[in-house]
Structure formats: C-alpha cells, structure tokens
Amino acid sequence: MRNILSILVLASLLISCGGNDRGQLIGVKGKKWNPEKPFGMVLVQGGAFIMGKSDYDIAGLNNAPTKTVTVPSFYMDETEVTNSEYRQFVQWVRDSTIRQKLAEAAELAGNVQGGGGRNNQTIGDFAFKNAADQDAGNLTPFQEFSKHYDPMNQKINWDAEIIWNQEEYPDADYVYVMDEFYLPNEQSYNGERMMDVTKFAYSLKTMDVEAAARESGNRTNFIEESEVLVYPDTTVWIKDFHYSYNEPLHNDYFSHAAYDNYPVVGVNWNQAKAFSDWRTQYLNSFRKSKGLEHANFFRLPTEAEWEYAARGGLESGTYPWGGPYAKDDRACFLANFKPLRGDYAADEALYTVEADSYQPNDFGLYNMSGNVSEWVGTSYEPDSYEYMSSMSPNVNNKKNKRKVVRGGSWKDVSYFLQVSSRDYEYADSARSYIGFRTVQDFLGNNLDLRNK
Q: Would residue 52 be called left, alpha or beta, if left means φ above 0 and alpha means ψ between -120 and 50 degrees?
C-alpha cells in the first residue's frame, strides 16, 4: 500500500511540473507576436548592395570608396519627421513636466482629494495617482516589500485636463506653478504670453551596449542619463543666414498649422535621439497596457541603412530615382535643392516643402534626396569604409562629435543629393536645413509576415 501511495505522489508531481507536454521538450511560449508595421513607416527588406561612389567623385573627397555590405530588414519613416509629429513629442514633455510640478505642489499643500475651488477644482485634482493610497497606508505588496519600488517615482495624473486659461486657474497654488513656465512680461512681445521652452527637457537614459558587451564590470558603468531640451531651435532661420530676412520662418515655421506637414528642422542629433527614445516608450506604454509583447525600439538609421534605403533597390544609381540627371524627361526637377546659382526657386520651392512632396523612390520613401538633410546614427570618419564591417556596418565613436548627415537639402547643390555623398555636422548643432527620420528593426525573418 505504501509503494502504491509513493507511485501516486510521484505521478502527481510529474503531472504538476510537466503540464500537458507528455514529458516532451516543447519550449516556453512567449506572448502572441504578430509583426505590425508602425504607422507612417514602410518595410525595407534587407539585402546586399554596393555602398559608396560608383562614379566619378567630383569633389575629390575620397571618403566613400565602393564596398559591398549587407543590411538586415527594417522599417523606415516614409517621410522626414514633420513639425506636427515632433510637436506631439514636445507637447507630451511639456504636459508631463507641468503635471509633475502640479502633483508635487498638491503634495506640499496636503491636498490630494481635489474639488472645492474655482469651478469646483483645486490643485489637488492633479495629485499623483497613488498619493491617496499611500496616505491611507494601502500599499501593494510590491510597493511594500520590493527592492525595485521607488516611493518617489509616483504616477503622474493624466486624467485631469490642464487649465491654460489664466481666468480659470482654480487656486493660488495652481497659479504659482503655472507662472513658473511662462516668461516674464518684459521678455514677451507681440501681445502674447510666451512659455519658457527651456523648462521642457526629456530625460534620456542610454546604455553603451557595445562597450558593456566587450568589458566586464557593473553595467551601471555603461549607463548614462542626460536631460535633453526638446524644443527646436527656431533661431536657426536667422543664424544660418546673415543679411537675409527670415523672420516669418523663425516666428511660425514650427508652431503654425500651415507648416504641420513640413519637415522639422532646428533639431540637433541629441534631440533626434531623444525623440526616437520617446517614440519607443510611448508605443510600448500602450502595448503594455493591452498585455501585448513589447515592440522593438525606434532609432536613427545607420549610414549603411540610410544609403541602402535611399537607393530604393537601384544598384549604383546616382540619385534615389537613378540618374544621372536631377530632371525628368519633361525637364521637371525631381527634388528640392539649389539647382541654379542664386535661383533657389527654380525647382518651385524656395525653402522646404511638404514632407511627402515629389515622387517616392521604389521603396516608397519620400525626399531621400533634397528638402532637408538627415541625421543618421553614425559618426563621421573619412576612412571608415576601409575598416567597417561588411555585415550591418556602423561606426559610432562616442568621443567623435561629428555625426553624419545625408541626402542634401533645399539649400544644397546637386552633388550633396547623390545617395553616396557624405557630409557631417556636430551633434550639438541645429540647422535650418537638417531634419531626420527614424527606423525600427524588423523582428524575426518570416517572409510570409513581412508585408502584413
């Protein structure tokens, strides 16, 4: 009887440990995953191509010799990131910063319930989400016992709408917080109450994965956190051009709805990286709330990825449309650039144009040449083609502040529109002719799912 009981106990243990796998190795299944093309992006299927100048290097820079390289599949923005899209990032940072300050003020005032002020509101309506629970001692087991819980990292309240109208501010505490985000009257002009955009910074946390993988030690040594001011530098329209009248663009290019679909400019390399990080966090926050597998991160393309995408599958073409000319058979210009000496408008565009102007290349990508030059995630090294890998190459030296820009812009001659031409700018510099677009790695290698 004792032997029979032992066998039954052993059998029950095996059943409880193995489930329904019948003792077979079946693996551990992750969450259900279906590749989903990000909104506004196209899939660029990976492959090999000849990178560099296959024709005469008219500038004689000798910084782009031909080299056969291979890149994996990735998604890429159809257009350069627009003012409207970048403004979503800026407003999210602005609103989260203001809500954080309002919640802190509510905590100091001891007002976490809300109600009772003007329009039956107080600053307490903006209190941290979990403030009332903590005050009542209703901590979850995670909050009470976990070493990963930070009591200072409280959830911002996104439910209450920010009150922008001064006449509707609910109480004195609210007034003090909001006034902090506006310039004093002596610094405002044109009859407008202007916000102090230097108050809005994004906390960018990055890890040097390559260095961490090659060296031993605590990974915290390879993690950096920095605050990046997010508002574009609108003064570039003035600073880039001496003895030129560009005040209308300085005043309205980023903020006015008329320019919503134009490429954002005045954004430096660090700001482009911060935008990419925010876009990743923003998407994955939604996916997490729905119990979905996280999506891969958005980032700037490598120089090789950019050139491969710009070529659109045309081997050794001079431009995204092939070439060798910048006009079609009806003598129409195929991109926005400086076609003639001093005549910027010969291509029917004086400055930038809408991001989806002109015809896309064979990958469905707009303005890979012209309109604005584009930041990529690669450091500029004149001889990098000589030593970079032939498989998914990228050279990004943290100490080198010169970052590659590609594609040429509205103020450049046709040489810089060539898909193989390389140029650079310093990472902390913003220009009226440099924008960016982002990419996202394609996860997996299932050909049947690629076009879904």
A: left
Residue 110 lies in domain: 87-181
Same domain flag for 340 and 418? yes
CA–CA dist 345, 366 (Å, integer): 20
The last residue of one of the domains, among 120, 153, 181, is 181
* Residue whose pair of structure tokens reads 């812009």 in the numeric block: 409
> What span, in angstroms and rounded, lies between the C-alpha atoms of 47 and 137?
58
Total number of domains in the chain: 2
62 and 145 fall within a common domain: no
CA distance 301 to 442: 13
Residue 440, strand partner residues: 75, 298
Give the integer Cα–Cα distance in Å for 93 and 278.
9
Verdict on whether the full-model pTM lies above 0.85: yes
**Domain presence at residue 226:** no
Among the ranges given (12-16, 130-134, 220-224, 424-428), the one the predictor scored with the smallest mean pLDDT: 12-16
Q: Where are the beta strands (DSSP E) in 19-107?
A: 41-44, 47-51, 67-71, 74-77
More confident residue, 330 or 72: 72
Beta strands in 330-372, from DSSP E residues, in sequence order: none
Clarify whether residues 48 and 151 are in a common domain: no
Band of residue 299 on the pLDDT scale cut at 50, 70, 90: very high
Using alpha carbons, list the distances in angstroms from residue 393 to 9, 373, 376, 387.
Answer: 57, 21, 13, 10
Q: pLDDT band at 133, cuts 50/70/90? A: low
